[in-house]
Every structure is written in C-alpha cells, then in structure tokens.
Amino acid sequence: MKTLFRRALMTAAIALAGASVAQAADPFPTKPVRVIVTSAAGGLLDITTRLVARHMGDKLGQQVVVENRVGAGGLVAIRGMKTVPADGYTLMAAVNTVAIQQVSSLDPGYDLAKDFVGIGPMTYSPFVLVTGPDQPDKNLADMIKRAKANPGKLSYGSAGTGSTTHLAGAMFARAAGLNLLHVPYKGNAAAWPDVVSGRVGMIFEGYASGLSMMRDGRLKAIGVTSPKRMDVLPEVPTFIETGVPDYTFNLWIGLLAPAGTPRDVVQKLSEALHAALNTPEVKDRFREQGSEVVLMSSDKFNQFLKDEVTGLTKLISDLGLPKQ
Fold first, then answer.
1. SS3 of 227, please?
2. End-to-end distance of the chain based on CA atoms, in angstroms?
3. Domains in the chain, please, with CATH?
4. Distance CA 36, CA 68 (A)
5. For the CA atoms of the chain, what is the radius of gyration?
6. SS3 of 244, please?
7. Dmax of the chain from CA atoms?
C-alpha cells in the first residue's frame, strides 16, 4: 500500500512539474494586452492608438484593449506605468509629452530612459491651428496682427501644462513675437467647447481629431505647423509662408513598456506594431488624417527618445518656460 501511495505521489509530482514547464513555455501573449492612453478619448492619440491596437490584436492573437487615463498633462498615466508588472501586458501610448514633462516638471516622478523601454513609434504629423467660427480673423496673418495689437489678450488652449499643444503654442508665440495667454485643460477635447464658443481664442489640434468640427464649421483652420502645406488641407497656409520663418512643429505618437520587460516580449510587440502599421487600412487612414506611418526598431526608438529629451531640455530653457 505504501509503495502504491509513493508511486501515486511521484506521478502527481511529475504531472505538476510538467504542467509548470508547459505554463512557463506558453508563448506571449496568453491574455489580452492593455494600452494606457495618456489623453482623453476622441483626441488624435486616442484615435490613432485604437486603430493600431485593433490590428496589433490580429497579429498577437489576443485582444489589445485601450484605456484612457488623464490628469496632470499626462503625468498621472506616465507615473502609474511605473507600478505595473514589466511583463508586456500593460503598455502606454504617448506623444512628445512623455519627453516634455520630464524636462518641464519640477518633479516628473520618472526618467524616460530608466523607467521605460520603447516598443516603437506609430505616426508623425503636424498640428493645425484652429479658432472658433466667430473669431474676426480671416486668416493666420490677421490673427498675428491682432495679437500684436493686443498683447496678453489673445488666448490659446492646450491639453495641459507641459503638453505638446502647450509647447506648440509657446514656440509659436516666441517665434512670432507675440504675448499670448495660455489656458490649460485636461486634454485638448476638454478645450473644444471654449474654442468653438470663442471664450478661448485658438488651439493647436491634430487634423484627424479636429476634422469633423472643421468640416461642419465649428472650428476654422488658419495655419498648419508643417514645412509645406498638407495635402488634406491645401488651402490652409503654413506658418513659414505667413511670415513666421522659424516655426514648425510635429507630433509623434509611440508605444512604450515598463523597463525590465523581457527582450523577447518587446520584440514580439514591436513586430505586431509593424504588422499593424503595414496594413493597407492603417496606411490609408493615416494618410487621410494627414499623418505619416513611422517604422522604427525598439533600439532605434529608445535612442530617439534619449535624443528627444536632450533637445527638449535646451528648447524649454531657450523658451524660458518655468518648471511647474
């Protein structure tokens, strides 16, 4: 009886060991992947991430779920990522803000190079400067002229202090020699009602996220931040041709994971991202939205992020923006 009992225990132990090995060898992913978006729903970052996430899910064989987490110009989401397991199941979709906040905040609470690893960029696109339909300016030149005649009275909204739209506005004001009032919100979408009504003078917006309001006349496009006119907005001039020769601004959108995420998991996520970006639907949608697909390896994206922090440190110092 003891011999039979001993054999049964050995058989059970072997079975459990085999199950553990099989479980450890299960290929990533074995459950849905979550992507935290650092802005409100409806904005360019949100729209872009949801499209890419759906196609990444097709490649990974698991659903990729998008979750919006707003607050403090993206810092709530960015800091929160430091507490999640570095297993590849929680990612973050972010824009230039993730680098801007590190160098513009008194206490950002993270170090981009130490706390994150890049999966890869998604898109690269300019902003459109939009105003409400009842603003008196017919074009960008008129607005600049009015702002110079009324220093400190014209306002621009942003997605929050230290956000890309804040930096775009501050850079524009400096390049054009204007004194503009900055009005921060919890995401660009939160500012739209005040811009449409005229309570806030203008805002820098992504073409894709502002398109429906531009089409129905709630917002009026008066300038684009690209070096040349956008194919999707051929009638809207650039800042360069309107007399602000040193001003361009581009927004990048990318995916990051917590530092320590296994190299093979990062590689698999990067491959899924590239597969998504190479689908005809994604390429066509981005083209229609005035964005360009960007394909970059994880290693190159990590170097890009380091260079971005270095460049922004100098830029924010040159702009004289106080740390918040």
1. coil
2. 75
3. 33-124+251-319 (3.40.190.150), 126-224 (3.40.190.10)
4. 6
5. 23
6. coil
7. 100
pLDDT, one tens digit per residue, over 276-324 is 999 999 999 998 888 889 999 999 999 999 999 998 898 888 888 888 7
Residues 71-91: pLDDT tens digits? 777 888 999 998 999 999 999
DSSP character string of 247-292: ---EEEEEEEEETT--HHHHHHHHHHHHHHHTSHHHHHHHHHTT-E
Q: Please identify which residue in the block is written with the tokens 């530092």.
A: 259
Distances (CA, A) of 215 to 44, 157, 218, 233: 16, 20, 8, 11
The structure tokens listed for 221 are 């496009």
Are 84 and 77 within 8 A, CB to CB?
no
Extract the tokens encoding 85: 């397991």
Residues 218 and 210 sit within 8 Å (Cβ to Cβ): no
Give the pair of three-digit tokens for residue 79.
């800091």
CB 298 within 8 A of CB 305: no
